[in-house]
Amino acid sequence: MGIPSEMKRYWVAHKHDMSLLIPSPAEDQRIFEARRCTQEGVRAGAKAAAVTSVVTAVPTLVAVRVIPWAKANLNYTAQALIISAASIAAYFITADKTILECARRNAHYDKTN
């Protein structure tokens, strides 16, 4: 497999064009906004995961002490899996929603089309 002929012609034609390597101010702003949205999503996801781990851990640990079925069937690994699965799900769902919401806020649509 090689480089498709169209791409090869493009790279040969623009080999010495340094303007392709220098991002424009608008592109810099987009990169900055994307990084900010990602950081905002990570922060929100971490908060949600922390809250969810506590909210999930309390009933799980209480159930293991009180409910006979849970006491017989949920060992330490199962308890940790329940708590961590809920925390991981909360992290990714919240981070994804936050990043998408931030991206929608920062989207600049061309109204001429």
Question: Which structural traits does this protein have?
Answer:
113 residues; mainly alpha; 4 helices; membrane; Early nodulin-93-like
SSE layout and pairings?
Blueprint: H1 5-13, H2 25-66, H3 68-73, H4 76-106
Helix pairs in contact: 2-4
Describe, in plain words, how this protein is organized in 3D:
The chain has 113 residues and is mainly alpha-helical. It has four helices and no strands. Helix 2 runs antiparallel to helix 4 (76-106). The chain is elongated. The model has no long low-confidence stretch (mean pLDDT 86). This is Early nodulin-93-like. InterPro entries: Enod93 (IPR005050). Keywords: Membrane, Transmembrane, Transmembrane helix.
Q: How many helical elements? A: 4
List unreliable stretches of 5+ residues: none
Mean pLDDT: 86
* Biggest β-sheet strands, sense, barrel: none
H/E topology pattern? HHHH
Structural class: mainly alpha
**Apparent shape:** elongated
Roughly how many Å is the radius of gyration?
A: 24 Å
Q: How many strand segments?
A: 0
Which range best describes the helical content: under 10%, 10-25%, 25-40%, 40-55%, 55-70% or over 70%? over 70%
Q: N-to-C terminal Cα separation, in Å?
A: 38 Å
**Range of strand content:** under 5%
Determine the oligomeric state from the structure.
single chain
